[in-house]
Protein: MaoC family dehydratase
Amino acid sequence: MPGKFFDEWTLGERITHQPSRTVTETDNLLFSAMTHNMQPLHLDAEFAKQSEFGQILVNSTFTFSLAVGLSIADTTVGTLVANLGFDKVVTPKPTFIGDTLTCHSEVVEMRESKSRPTQGIVVFKHELTNQRGETALSMLRTVLLKKRDA
Structure:
């Protein structure tokens, strides 16, 4: 499914993206290793048992990347010129191995590009919720999109 062009979005539009994704131990291990994040809370079960969480925490940069990945099919595939920025990234609840995450997106800002008349800027609020209905991650993603009628 292709993403939408700038002129196809409306302010306040909301999407719940499918599929959702269950996070595995392998996801967390490989992502942490690939990014050289050797935090023992992500990798060492015995260390993590001694933490206030009592178990391994999934690397939060994995959840950040997953939010982007889960959202793009409905938002920006084929219409993106560039990601302009990521802001207000918060992780109010931890993600654990076995959690199933669902991404929701809302258009919170739109404006014409002043320097590129064939493009426009959209700000999405992406939110990941787990199977318990808790928000695991929230962020703003600002994108530069093509216009259909350009």
The mean pLDDT is 96. The first strand starts at residue 14 and ends at 16. The chain is about 25% helix and 35% strand. The beta strands are 14-16, 21-22, 80-90, 100-112, 119-129, 135-146.
